[in-house]
Amino acid sequence: MDQTGQSSNRGAFIVVEGLDRSGKSSQAARLLERLQTANIPAKLMKFPDRTTAIGKTIDSYLRSESDLDDRAIHLLFSANRWELATSISSALHSGTTLLCDRYAFSGIAFSAAKGLPYDWCRAPDISLPAPDLTLFLDVAPEVARERGGYGEERYEKEEMQRQVRVMFQRLGEETSGSGGGRQRWVTIDAGQSIQAVEEDIWRAVEPLVHGVDNPLERLWETTAAPS
After folding, report:
1. How does pLDDT run across 98-144, given as a tens digit for each residue?
2. How far apart are the C-alpha atoms of 131 and 114, rounded to whole Å?
3. Residue 158 pLDDT class (50, 70, 90 cuts)
4. Spans of all domains in the chain
5. Helices (H), the chain
6. pTM of this prediction?
7. How far is it, in rounded angstroms, from Cα 77 to Cα 208?
8. Looking at domain 13-211, what is its CATH homologous superfamily?
9. Residues whose CB falls within 8 Å of the CB of residue 93, separated by 6 or more in sequence, listed in order
C-alpha cells in the first residue's frame, strides 16, 4: 500500500488505436472477454464517450448533423477525455485493468491530418493519464474501405485516413521513446484474420495482465512548458 492507501500494484492502462474500420472495437471487446474469462478485473471505455453532455455534441458532429470549427471540435474531444481522467486513475489504482477504445492519440492524429499544427493539437492532452501499452491496429485505408459500414461518419474518407495513418506513425515513434521505455507502442497488422490479430494483441498484453508496479505516468509531461 502507498501513503494514500492505494495498492502499489495497479491495473494496466491499455489503449487500442487505429484507423476507422481497422477492427478496434471488435478487438477491444474480444480482449475484454478474454481478460474477464481469466478472472482479471477489467473494464472497457470508449472515446469519444458519447453519453456525456460534451460527448453528445461530438456525436452530432461526427454524424455530420452539425458543423463546428476544427479547433473547437478538437478541444471538445480533449475535454471529453479530461472529464473522465479522474475515473481512469481511480479504476487503475483500484486494481482494474482498463481498456480504452481510442484515446488522445486519435484526437491528435485526426486534427493534425486536417492541417492543424501538431504541437497545438497535442497541448490540451498533456498530463492526461498515460497508457502502459498502446496497440495501434494498422491497416491500409484501401483495405478498411472494403469493410462494412465504411463512410458512415465524417472522417471515413480514404485520403483523410491516409493522412491520419501518417500522424499515427509519428505518434508511435515519439511514444516509443518516452517514459523511460515504460510507455509502449506496439503496431499490430490489422489486415490479418480476426483470430491472428487477436493473438498478436494477446502476446503484447499478456505481460501486463497481472498488474503494473510502476507509478501511473502522465502523457508528455516532460515536454510541457513550466508553469
Report:
1. 999 999 999 999 999 999 999 999 999 999 999 999 999 998 877 76
2. 25
3. confident
4. 13-211
5. 24-37, 53-62, 70-82, 85-93, 104-113, 118-122, 141-145, 158-176, 194-205
6. 0.87
7. 28
8. P-loop containing nucleotide triphosphate hydrolases (3.40.50.300)
9. 6, 7, 10, 11, 216
